[in-house]
Amino acid sequence: MEPVLQALANGVIIGAIVALTAVGLSLIYSILDLTNFAHGDTVTVGAYAALAVNIAWGVSPWVGVLVGMLVGAVISVVLEVVLWSKLRRSGADRVTLIVVSIGLALFLRNLIIFIYGTSSVSYQVPVEQALLLGPVMLTPQQIQVTAAAALAALAVHLILQYTTIGKAMRALADNMDLAWVSGVNVDNVILWTWVLGGLLAAGGGALYAFTRPINPNLGWFLLLPMFAAIILGGIGNAYGAMLGGLLIGVTQELSALVIPNHYKLAVGYAVMIAILFLLPRGLLGKEELT
Amino acid sequence: MKGSERMTKVRKTRISFNYLLVGLLVLGLTLSGCTSPAGEAPSEDGEDGPTGPIKVGILLPATGDLAQVGQPMIAAGQVGAQVIQDAGGVLGRDVEPVVMDTATEENTAREGMDQLVNLEQVAVVVGAAGSGNSFAALSVAQPAQVVMISPSSTSPDFTNYDDGGYFFRTAPSDALQGKVMAQLALAKGYTKAATLALNNQYGEAFKNVFVEAFEAAGGEIVADVLYDPQGVTFDGDVAQIAQAAPECVILVSYPETGSIILRTAYQQGLLDTAEFILSEGLQSDELAESVGKDAQGNYIIAGIQGTRPKATGPAYDFFVEKFEEMHGKGPSGPFDAHTYDAVVLALLAIEKAGESSGPAIKEALLEVASPPGVKVSDPDEALKLIREGKDIDYEGASGNVNMDEVGDVLSAYEVWEIQPDGSVEAVGDVVPE
Q1: Fewer beta carbons under 10 A from the terminal one: N or C of chain A?
Q2: Ordered domains of chain A (ranges, CATH)
Q3: B window 138-177, beta carbon within 8 A of A
């Protein structure tokens, strides 16, 4: 097994998951000016929903993934209707929204701890031995997870490019006022953005649960690489988020070849800082007009 | 600013919804964000007055990496307290165990000890479990002059550590178990071993003793890896071991991280090419389930062996009986009997000392644990003899618990094996040479 290619393969797997989960974060940030710290915990909720279904009813974890995605979408929409829209209407400023999202994050996380405790859990599936595919070793599950993530990314691309709602999302993320003036139903699009973000975040979490045993802090720890990914890729650009996620994942795994494991996270940020020095708007971001 | 809402934004003059919401959430954030060690509510009595109960602190991991090992230990400690309570308590007062979770983390252990000593005003503490956590807790207990008895901290570093006489343990030092492990590996015919150990006081010290003993007998260490106790994936560490092509791998670990390592080893095919021998920190009935099953439904680690101190004191059957009475099932971990003994010894020492202050307890503890004295295993009888003014030598459930002048005990060791149904059975003794 070739260490560099193996690290690359592992990096693509984790990077694909970060990429998916970061899309929602990026879109919400650019449309609503909301830095949603509870986004990571949506990832956790999706993972635990998938696990709950798998462990309680013995269904395939892939069914769990779909259930998790649904739960994520529903929670996101409910929160938008019950919390975020009301806050926006009463003129809450950026900092207020951030503080609220942090409180929400802690609430969701502790709700999960309350129900499931803090020990690690994983899907009840047979453990598979890895296959030697040329220079790398991958379990069939890892291949399936990457394939699923790639499919999801393709779906996102198709939605954003070829559906009305997708184009509206991109328009809103690009320039809110112009979109509104051109007749886009802003509230409707916001709702659908939450749906998409929730589906992807929760789905990403459920996929992540294939790769290692999870605990309630899963989403919180993924949140920082997610932020790094969207800044790296350019805020407001879904493709940037995906590209950034992949890059962060790959660099982290490759770095583990030369420096101790626990510095992996720091490497992701180092990469982000480096790119920001060279390209302040991120890889795919555009020039700010204001 | 964003959203169509801003076209109709109106600033309300009364306290608006979002301020209230933020206030509530910040309150919730503060309350839920403060992580404090889980523990029982402080006794209504408040202070430990001359008529209040004698409080025994039980500082062990209910959560975290050692949760699977710590939970039965906590249960065993409660049995010890109950048994003494049933025998009339100590110094004419009730016995009250106060459980505090270390979460298998040094900071939490330190805070937990602080709470036990200063808030709960316990007379003595049984704990912690992991050696690193015991060192952390000791840094609080020693200056506060509170005696600490660990039922499972096995690091050899405690033996010569200057603890002012306040640290004792009912578990033997790994200076012995490391040698026993080497003996076992050599007896199985292995000459090339790799070590994979937790990068903490327990793992590193154990590994060093093993390496020394194994090499002294002519064996070769082909790989020596210390892994991050906070890690969640260990693909790289396992791959490093695999590349060295060992005949056996000594895994010094705790159940949660250890189960991930064993699963990774299976995935990489290492479990098939090398025999893993586990340290006692991994001995748990739930380990097999944590690691998982293969496609045929068999536990991946069925047949895997490990070493552990042998718990065979005269009080062992009595302890098992009382444990089953109180908890509805038997003890299951490697250090349950040791925890029971630690609690019983602590309380006998208080009775012997005639008071519950640290300096008095630490003197009395050595007296009741070791010869000379009447050998006694039943706590009821032990208390009776102490009250009659006699010298006793308590022989416990884990062994004769004869402590030397630095508070260490000796022990025999045995080999355990994971059965096809996931349970743990002892399969033979190993006597340190």
Answers
A1: C
A2: 3-121+131-278 (1.10.3470)
A3: none
